[in-house]
Amino acid sequence: MDIKTASALRRLRLVSAPEAVSFLVLLVCSVLKRTTDFNAVPVMGAVHGVLFVLYVLFWADAWNRAKWGFGTAALYFVLSVLPTGGFFAERRLRREAESAVIAARARKEGVVNA
Description:
Layout: H1 3-35, H2 41-66, H3 70-81, H4 85-109
Helix pairs in contact: 1-2, 1-4, 2-3, 3-4
């Protein structure tokens, strides 16, 4: 994995958890808007919107650079629209990055899979 691919995956991983948190907070604000006089939906909607747009941009970049298949790319996109999906995306991306580092070290040391 080259440095640009690793950077693209890292950016996607770093934005996925905040995007998930903002989605959950937006859902709570929507409930509070309807049950109380508290209305933070315009603010949280904007915050979540910016984070979602960043997620989609970083997702497209990661898909292009990592050469994911359609299924993997679709999975990461679906995770972005589920309320807690960003947490699962972050965990999978972290594991993928760790595996790539291990594979790169093995290639560098000349270890061949048996």
